[in-house]
Amino acid sequence: MTGNNRRPDRLSLFPPGGALTLEGLDGSDTSNRAPDTHRLLADLRSSEPVS
Amino acid sequence: MRLGAGALLALLLAACGSGPGPGETALSGSSVTAAVDDPGSVTLPVDPAVTIGHLDNGLTYYLRSNDAPGGSLELRLVVAAGSLEQNVTGSGIAHFLEHMLFNGTADYPGNQLDDALQTLGMQVGADVNAYTSCDATVYGLTVSLDSPEHVEVAFDVLDQWATAATLDPDAVVAERGVVLEEYRMTETAQGLIATRFDEVYTEGSVYEGCDPIGTEGAIVTTDPVDLIHFYDRWYRPDLMAVVAVGDLAVDLMEREVIDRFSDNVARADSPEPRARQAGLVTGVVAEVVVHPDAPSPFVSIDYSLPDREPGTVDGERTALLDGLVSALVQSHLDEQVAAGNLPVVRPFATEFAYTDSLRFMGFNYVAKDEAASVTAMLLELRGLANRGFPSDSVERNRAAFANALDQSLAAEATRQDYSFAASYVAHFLGGADIGEVTARHARQTEMLESITADELSSHFATTFGEAAPLVLVVGHDPADLPSTAELEAAVNEGLTGTAGTGRAETTGVVDSLMEPPTAVDPVAVNRISTHGAVEFVYRNGASVIFTRSDISEGQVDLWAESQGGWTLLEPGSSALVDKATGAVDRSGAADLSALEVEAFQQSAGIWLMSMINETTEGFMGSARSTDLESLFALSYLRANEPRVDGPAFDEAVEAITSEQRSVEADPYAASSVQLADARYGGDAYFRPYPDASQVTNFSAEGALAMFESRLGDVDDLVIAVVGDTDEITVRRLADRYVGTLPAGPSDTWAALAPEPPVGVVTRTVSAGANEASAGFELLVITEVDPTEEMLAASRVLERILQSRLFTTLREEMGLSYGGGQVFIDLVEHPIPVAEVFVSVNGNPEGIAELYSRTLAEMADLAASGPDRDELERARSTVLTDLDFITNGDILERLIAWGRSGGEDSATLADRYYEVERISPDEIKTAAKMLLPENRRIEVFRVPEGTMP
Q: Measured over all CA atoms, what is the biggest interatomic distance in chain B, rounded to whole angstroms?
């Protein structure tokens, strides 16, 4: 296997957004997965006092 | 590259089984109990939490209500037709059509779709994208649920893609340049080498010759009639699925699907897609692949694995056996390298899927004598297959898998929308397992316990008995590589020579890394109200800041940082710091061997890396909530009793060799060297890669000394801890493992960095193989006060410039696939500056046009500022980004608070509101300041001997 140099077997319409790397530019997979996220505003809104 | 916890999980969750293919019977979330003779072929039950349904027209849908991350919705339109369905193999029609669905539909003519989605906060590339493979074409949207309108628009866009492409001939002609640019980017040396691997993997299968991009000639002559024909034949309800996962009630999603997709019909005849089966690759391959721009030489050995039925009882067991076997082989190879029995560096073993039906067990590594190493490796593997796996190694790896299974169960509570969506796409296309997690955990845990060392050994022996080695040696200089005849002879010797007779396994089982030190109390405990955090301050100068986060259930993340960095080391050390930290990270610690530490890390699911940056040094790590103590203990050991072992040092030397080769062969690496040289005026301050004398003098002792001088003691170390744990636990661990670290002399970084250059500095490097890496980089450095206002303005400005370059360089001019990548960073130390970095990749004959247009857009923004619509679109996408936070984002804020002694107290919410608040005038002012016309470093990647 070509390891890090492996070309993906699929073509993306656009380069992936966010933390784009040069490896990402040529389409190769650069990470196992994105980190988990949580919605900030959901917390802020739920902690706002209800009048 | 090793199997970390993530890789183990990936193996465990790997696609298993045959569920409903396109157009088959609805499952509607119930388990399937097919009456079959062979219990192994029984399909695994589907998770009742997913609603699977079919419309009368044959369209399938998968709907799931899920609250991680919350306030968001993942949508996919899956078309179970890809490049394999083309009339002509290399036509690239399936892929070209995918592009055209963004260039005009009935409701979104021209390029209106991009603008409409950006207005809803979606960023092209990140939140809006599509892909084409040989098997399928998949479109995706990530929608923030700020209003019901977002949901309606998003489902409407999916329906537009399914039914309403306009495929205007003028738009087809206009898109050719973009597709050609995408084609050109596959023609790098690495792309061409990968193509050769593809050919080896697919020979004789249905995938042979399938390359979604197509040939250059076919792209240039793409006929709109062929696009329409493909669209009408293959984009039809019985081959489609709609996937929706997110923070919305299932009945709402179902109503959207029924309302919009029920009236869709097949627009032409309905041919059957080609069968996706692929057999074993059984012919021996021994090939030397030479390209003048190839990276540093490496060896690849692959073995074809039999097709398995994903989503069935047997398929699941095979997946588990394959995963365990690759982990066991990896352990064995590491042990042989550590014992000096195998003449290779950083062997890597894994099983991988080229497509659902083409799977391999693969190895790659680096060796001084490639031919001899191939013989040694094949004999080693044959010997292992003959002898079987030792039971202690099986037990160790079984325990690591069991722990990873437990973690996957814990993490399910915050499993993200996109992850569910990906598994439903895989289920529709290939029948992957989408079972309920608790049942899967119980089933696989039981299966793990029932798998014996004999069964694993027999599985490995059978795999190697049925498949032939596919051996490829890759490099750039034929004089330094074996000839094909030599490689063939080496492979033959490996297949017929006397297999290894067995060697002692050397890895012991380690239950804990160390006895905990005697705890010390903090000298102060401070509440940080702005961040809802607590700080423990210790007498040695170290502090620990903790806040709880439920973003990732069962996981805790850590980031530690102190001040100094390589500015306090010998000049030129910047080139070696990551080799030194890497060598320590891959070695043992105290009296534990590297293999013992690694086996322990795998079993405990902890990850830790050290780093020495320009003005800081520290650690980053992650642990399961149940094993946080192990992460603290490992950090303690790395700081207190680090080691650099032989194999880890060899890997560091290999990394240096590989980098040196990159600078020669990779235009991007060459460009980064020129940028650094221009920025710092030579290498007196900063050197990106080691010079010849550094390489000659690099030693394990020197690497260890470099590490210890920055990371061996603490003076102002700030350790931030964020995740699914509690204050009492963190306090207990900090008292033991942080308060007891040795105190060192107080220091801060040295302010030695030269001022950025004035005027325009221009450099050129080669555009590489086929001029496929043609383009340029721009770096504009401006001294600024790095305030929160400036940060907010620069974030929006970054998005505006990126969007402008996408629209002009890609959509309007058709000379670039990616448009321009724009990054604006505010750097606080050692000199407070804003760095605007622009990277453009494009047609080598259009570099001058791309360059002048890029400068013109920057000048226009500096002179006139953004227009109101583009500003609001950019603001909308930045706000969406800032709204979805990670543990890493929280860690960054805690570290900034600690590093500044509380002065930098901005929270993530402050940053969100700053962007929401910032005025057009402030952005205009920032543009004027950060995009000057007469000051920049520029590096062109151009064909040899040319210059715009």
A: 79
What is the identity of the amino acid at B460? F
The number of C-alpha atoms within 13 Å of B696 and in the hemisphere containing its C-beta is 3
Chain A residues whose CB is inside 8 A of the B887 CB are 35-36
Report in angstroms the alpha-carbon separations of B701 from B577, B656, B706. 13, 17, 9
Q: What is the nearest CA distance from B723 to chain A, expressed in angstroms?
A: 11
Chain A residue with the nearest C-alpha to that of B200: A1
Two tokens at B828? 């606080």
**Single pTM value for the model:** 0.92
Interface probe for B, chosen from A23, A32, A39 (most Cβ of B below 10 Å), is A39
Residue with tokens 């072992």: B645
For B806-816, the pLDDT digits (tens) are 999 999 999 99
| End-to-end Cα spacing for chain A | 62
Distance (Å, rounded) from C-alpha B315 to C-alpha B319? 6
B650 touches chain A (CB under 8 A): no
Q: Is B186 on the interface with A (CB under 8 A)?
A: yes
Q: Using an 8 Å Cβ cutoff, are B549 and B723 in contact?
A: yes
Q: What's the token pair of residue B619?
A: 């650690």
Instruction: Give the best residue of B66, B157, B185, B770 to mutate against chain A (max A CB count within 10 A).
Output: B185
Helix/strand/coil for B681: coil
Dump pLDDT digits (tens) for B503-544.
656 667 788 999 999 999 999 999 999 999 999 999 999 999
With an 8 Å Cβ cutoff, is A32 touching chain B?
yes
Beta strands in B165-284, from DSSP E residues, in sequence order = 240-246
Mean pLDDT of B324-333: 94
Name the phi and psi angles at B135, rounded to 5.
-85, -35
Nearest chain A Cα distance for residue B137, angstroms: 9
Is A24 touching B (CB cutoff 8 A)? no
Chain A residue with CA closest to B772: the answer is: A26
Burial B196-215 (b: 16+ CB within 10 A, else e): ebbebbbeebbbeebbbbbe
pLDDT > 70 fraction of chain B, expressed in percent and rounded:
95
CA gap B654, B296 in Å, rounded: 9
Q: Which residue of A has its CA nearest to B909?
A: A40
For residue B50, give the nearest of B438, B428, B435 by alpha carbon: B435
pLDDT of B433 strictly over 80:
yes
Q: Is the peptide bond before B830 cis (omega within 30 degrees of 0)?
A: yes
In angstroms, the separation between the Cα of residue B705 and the nearest Cα of chain A is 30
Rounded to whole angstroms, how far apart are CA atoms B836 and B824? 4
Q: Give φ, ψ of B892 to 5 degrees.
A: -60, -40
- Per CB-CB distance under 8 Å, the chain B contacts of A3 are 1, 298, 300, 348, 364
Q: State yes or no: pLDDT of B17 exceeds 50.
A: no
Write down the pLDDT at residue B174: 94
3-state secondary structure B212-232: CCCCHHHHHCCCHHHHHHHHH
Contact yes or no for B441/B413 (Cβ under 8 A): no
CA B791 vs CA B268, B342, B487: distances in Å: 54, 52, 56
Give the residue, A40 or B538, on which the prediction is more confident: B538
- β-sheet bridge partners, residue B825: B835
Give the pLDDT of residue B108.
Answer: 97
Confirm or reject contact between A16 and chain B (CB < 8 A).
yes
In this predicted model, what pLDDT tens digit does every residue of B52-71 receive, in sequence order?
Answer: 999 999 999 999 999 999 99
- Answer whether B1's CB lies under 8 Å from B348's CB: yes
Residues of B in contact with A41 (CB under 8 A): 71, 883, 912
In whole angstroms, give the CA distance from residue B817 to residue B176: 11
Q: Which ranges constitute the DSSP H helices of B313-416?
A: 313-338, 370-387, 391-411
CA distances from B796 to B273, B792, B915, B920 (A): 45, 7, 8, 10
